[in-house]
Every structure is written in C-alpha cells, then in structure tokens.
Amino acid sequence: MSKAAQSHDQGSSVGKVDGRFFTFAEPSDTMPLESGARLGPITLAYETYGELAANQDNAVLVLHALSGDAHAAGIHRSDDPKPGWWDTLIGPGKGIDTSRYFVICSNVLGGCMGSTGPSSINPATNRPYGLDFPMITIGDMVAAQKRLIDALGIPRLLAVIGGSMGGMQVLDWSVRYPEMVFAAIPLATTMRHSALAIAFNEVARQAIMADPHWQKGCYYDGKHPDLGLAVARMIGHITYLSDDALRNRFGRKLQDRNDFSCNFGADFQVESYLRHQGKKFVDRFDANSFLYLTRAADYFDLLLDESEEHVATVFAKALARFLVVSFTSDWLYPTYQSRAMVTAMKRAGRDVSFCEIEAPCGHDAFLLPIKRLATIIKGFLDRVHTEFRK
Amino acid sequence: MSTPNSVNNPLRYDLTVIASWIEPGSRVLDLGCGEGTLLSLLRDTKQVVGIGIEKNEAKAIACIEKGLTVLQGDISTEVKDYNDNAFDYIILSQTLQQVYEPAQLLHRLLRIGRRVIVSFPNFSHWRSRLHLLVKGRAPKTEQLPYEWHNTPNIRVITINDFRHFIKQEGCIIRREEAIDTHHHDTAGHRVRLFPNLLATYAIFLLEKKLQAESSRRKA
Fold first, then answer.
1. Which of A120, A204, A382, B12 could be cross-linked to A232 through a Cys-Cys bond (beta carbons 3.0 to 4.6 Å apart)?
2. Across A286-290, A330-334, B141-145, least confident range
3. ipTM score of the complex?
4. Angle between helices A165-176 and A138-151 in degrees, nearest 10
5. Domain residue ranges in chain A
6. Confidence grade of residue B184 (pLDDT, cut at 50, 70, 90)
7. CB-closest option in B67, B72, B73 to A379
8. Closest Cα partner for A106 from A191, A203, A23, A15?
9. Alpha-carbon distance B209 to B217, whole Å?
C-alpha cells in the first residue's frame, strides 16, 4: 500500500490508476458552444474508480476546481510522490466509497491536463489554438462532460459533487440536465462571482497578459509567460487561504534569516511560500487555460436576476436532492453566497441540506481532510443511494 | 397514548407525545431538531417527509450523517424561505422560551405550515412558585436549571399565559397536553387536574383561525 494511503485515518487508496481519454465532436459533428461558436474534435481526459453496477445506479461524477485535473484519487506509478487531488475523500471506505460507488472525474474543457484547451492543436492550422480557442463557459464544460457520461452508458448519475469552480459545474449540471442528476453536492461555491472574486481574477489575468512572453497567447513556440502565470497563482493562493490561515501558518516569520535583508528577496515566510506555489504551478499549468477558465468562472451566473420572483425559478427545473456546504473562513465564496443558493433551492421546493463547517483554512478547506466533511458526504450519499434504488 | 420507544432510541417524553400527534406520510418541519432523534423516528415509523433546522454545526452534521434533510441555521431566518402551507406540521419543541419575537415567529409558522406544535417548560409549576415565594429568588428547578444571568430562556411562559397569547393572536388551539416529566426524561405522565400548577411542560397543537373553521365544517 502506498504511503499516501496509509496517511489517512480511515479508508484506503484506490491504488494504481490509469488516465483515459474520450474524443468526440469530430469535424463532421462539432459541438456547439454557448458563445455560438463550434468546437471539435474534443478530447476529455478522465479517470474512473470502482465498478459501475449492472443497473448503473452507483455513478458519482466528481468535478474539479480551476487548477485541478482528472486525477482525483490513487497514484499513476508506484513511485508517485503524491496521490490524486481528492485522495483524502475518494477510496474504499472513504467519504466517497469506491467499494460502493463508481466514481468518474474528467478534466474540464478548456483545461490543460489532457482535455482540449487553448494549448491543444487547432486542426485548422495544425498549431496550438492560443487565443483562437473559442470562449467557453461552465455550461460548455458540463455539456462536454455529458457526452462522456453518455458514452460510458450511464443514463442517470447518482450524484455530482465538486468544490469551487467544480461546485459551479455541479449547480449547472443540476439545471441543465435535471433528469440525469439524482443528487448534487456543491461545496464552497457560488451561483455567481462577486465583484471581489472577479477582481482577483482580473488582477491574475493582467499579470499573465502583462508578461512580455505572453505574446497575445501565441507563446507555444518560444518562452512561456511563466512569471505572469506564477504571479497569477500567487494571487489565487491568497484567495484560497484566509487571514486566520495565513496568520497561524506564517505570521510575520522570516524565511531562513534573522533580520530583514533590506532588499526585495523573499524575507517573509509567506513570500517564500507564495513564490514556491507560483513556481510549482508554471510547470504544470498553461497560462492561456488560466485565462479561459477564470473567465468562464467570472461569466457563470445562475442567478441572472436577484428579484424575489426570479430567485424561486433558478432551481425550478432541477430534480436533485442537494447537500450544500460552506466553510466559515472562506472569503472567496463566503457562506452568505451558499445561503443564497439554499434559499433559491428552498423557494423552488427542492430537498436541500446545508452545513457551514467551522474551518480556519479558508476556501481550500474542501480539499483538506476534514472528517466532518467526509462524514456528511458519506451519510448523504448513503441516503440518496437508498432512495435512488427504490 | 404514546408511541413505544425502542430501547436503543429513547425519545424525550414530550417528543413521544408530539410524535403520536403526527399523521403518517405528513410533511414535517422540526425547528431546533438537535441530532434528529424525532425526525429519524418519524421517518422510520410514519414515512414522514421531514426537514430539520438546527443552529449547532455538530448536531446538524449528526443529522445529515443519519440521512436526514437538515439546514444549519437560525430558525427565524430559515422559515422565511418556504412557500405557504409547505408543511403539514411544524414542530417547535422547547424553544419558544428562547425566541426573541414569538408572535412574529408564530405567524410565520402558521403561514408555511397547516399546523404548529409548540412545547415549552411551564414557568408556573408549583416548584417554581414555591421557590419564588419562599426563597424570594428567581425560580431554579430541574426543568429550568439556570441563574437569571445565564439563562437562555428569555421568555417566561406559563400555560395560562400561552392560552391567552394564542387567543390574542387569533389562532386556534386544536389539542393540548400538559405533562409532568423531567427535562431529558423518556418517561412521564399526563396532567389532567390543575395543569398550570402541576405540569412541568405543555404541548399545544395550533392552527390558523380560518383553517380551523374550515376543517371543522368538513368534519
């Protein structure tokens, strides 16, 4: 058993897993996007864990956040230093128990972790799309995932679950394909970005576009806008943490020194941490994907209109039972945004459970091994699985 | 009268009485549902479609873990979001004495529910009266174990006061039961004589005036 598997207090690892690919929307049958453009062919990278039941009643679709990928659980090689991004929650005996459920996770459309995105080859030019890649939306990501679910032969998902931008996809799934979603678990997410969230994304995008190597997105033959992307990631990391989390973890502690350097090196631990996160990110992420995905998150707006009458219509079409979870120190998508979502679900007569989990670690809490989170997800899945089989 | 409790799942006596009043298959909203003991029982024995509201995170988590539909939040705020007559029964058990605006809450509940079941500790029980009379100090009993400065019970309710309140607010009492039991006890008995003096808790089933009249006509 891997080290990663042993580090969890309950459940074990799904073990070694393989990445898979699904290609559709060939040139004769390209996929229409919400912008009106068409795109094809489209490849989605995905992974699955567990076994699909003969009557297909146990499929759980996991949706990742901005910088996530299809590798949600297990390891790719026996010497993998790190398991998938939600390995704490997905595995035999864990919150999403792979001995009971068939779990699917795919990299989003527009991403850069194996799915078609701006860094993919444009069949029309045989060069990377760059900014010729059409603007995509959260709805387009969901529409692409639906093709994958269809291809896997799953008529109805037991549950869709995801945090942050993954949560937006959960919400979108529930109203776009209501008959395919029996239960939905949006975590640390929102029906629409606040001005604050858009503002952070804009600063991050500006950092990329101000990098001289960005070259209006045509950088694939030369140097990449690594500095800009690193700064964008640093900004992102601030929004994923919280005042409390930063104070507890770093305070004003200095990095490898006893006094100020009196220059602009990384004196403080928090600076060093952010620089490290930025550097690590450029090795695995594409700057153009970052632009497209943050734009999609900014444009996402399930609410459209805040009037009393309209609120009741947002989830009118949905058929899912919902479990909404927020975290006390999340300042990117604060609890009031989850409560607004819950209100809209209640007004539409939907079955909804809600919990605000006390967590000092900010927005990223949904990715951390919080026992209370695993507990309610497990309890909720148990319940909906029973109801689904009736 | 009461639903028998299983040994594994002992229910507080007042909740046993409340459970016995609920018709099978009803839609129920349990305000301050705690760890969902009553809701679980109603789901398992009466096929009730239940929703709970609970302020405490750990308790709300315990409910969701049991597969109950529960919202963590404040009663007064959460009840605003429901449509008229969304529930057959709304249960407000041992919470009214802690509500800041009881009249407003009562009317909100009677908007979203056909019937409201309210239970509260009776502040005019003889022990409380004796405590005040003899010791000259604010009553402190097993049901009301707090000091004046740390009690969460900001409303002092007696059975007579509650009846008067309901009449004044233009609502109808459809059913009532006075009981003698300790706070967390699973056993107790009905009080028929002098309930305002002898009962530790009271349970009322309330309706809107209009509806009470129309259901009487139907009967």
1. A204
2. B141-145
3. 0.91
4. 70
5. 3-193+301-389, 194-299
6. low
7. B67
8. A23
9. 12
Quick: pLDDT tens for B12-37.
888 999 999 999 999 999 999 999 99
Flag whether pLDDT at A5 surpasses 60.
no
Q: Per residue in A295-343, pLDDT tens? A: 999 999 999 888 888 899 999 999 999 999 999 999 999 999 999 999 9
Tokens read off for A146:
């639906």
Asked if B60's CB is within 8 angstroms of A355's CB, the reply is yes
Residue A141 phi/psi, 5° resolution?
Answer: -60, -45
| Cβ <8 Å between A353 and B68 | yes
Q: What is the pLDDT of residues A344-366, one digit of tens each?
A: 999 999 999 999 999 999 999 99
Note whether B144 contacts A: Cβ–Cβ < 8 A. no
The domain B13-125+154-218 is placed in CATH, from the list 3.40.640.10, 3.40.50.150, 3.30.70.120, 3.30.1360.180, at 3.40.50.150
Q: Where are the domains of chain B?
A: 13-125+154-218
**Residues of B (39-68) whose Cβ lies below 8 Å from A:** 51, 57, 60-61, 63-68
pLDDT value of residue A306:
82
Q: What is the domain class of A3-193+301-389 according to CATH? A: alpha beta
Confidence (pLDDT) at B212: 55
Determine the 3-state secondary structure of A161 from DSSP. Answer: strand
Chain B partners of A378 at a C-beta cutoff of 8 Å?
65
Q: Do A357 and B57 touch (CB under 8 A)?
A: yes
Cα separation, A36 vs A147, in Å, equals 18
Determine the distance in angstroms separating the CA of A19 from the nearest CA of chain B, rounded to an integer.
Answer: 32
| Residues of chain B found within 8 Å of residue A375, distances taken between Cβ atoms | 61, 64-65
pLDDT digits (tens, 9 = 90+) for A54-95: 999 999 999 999 999 999 999 999 999 999 999 999 999 999
Q: End-to-end CA distance of chain B, in Å?
A: 23
What is the spatial distance between Cα A383 and Cα B67, in angstroms, rounded to a whole number?
A: 5
Task: Compute the distance between CA of residue A26 and CA of residue A32 in angstroms, rounded to an integer.
Answer: 12
Instruction: Identify the DSSP state of B41.
Output: H
Residue whose C-alpha is closest to residue A13's, from A2, A23, A22, A24: A2
- Residue showing tokens 């779990």: A103
Q: How far is CA B90 from the centre of its chain?
A: 9
Q: Provide CATH code, domain A194-299.
A: 1.10.1740.110
Gap from B134 CA to chain A (nearest CA, Å): 46
> Three-state DSSP class for A86?
coil
Report d(CA B57, CA B65) in Å as an integer: 12
Contact predicate B63/B39, CB 8 Å: yes
CA separation for the pair A203, A225 (Å, rounded): 15
Mean pLDDT, residues A115-135 = 97
Is residue A239 within 8 A of residue A200, CB to CB? The reply is yes
pLDDT of residue A161: 98
Least CA distance to B66: which residue of chain A? A379
DSSP string covering A120-171: SEETTTTEE-GGGSPP--HHHHHHHHHHHHHHTT-SSBSEEEEETHHHHHHH
Q: pTM value?
A: 0.93
Asked if pLDDT for residue A3 goes beyond 50, the answer is: no
Q: How far apart are CA A298 and CA A233, in angstroms?
A: 16
Token representation of residue A333: 């998508």
Is the pLDDT assigned to residue A227 strictly greater than 80?
A: yes
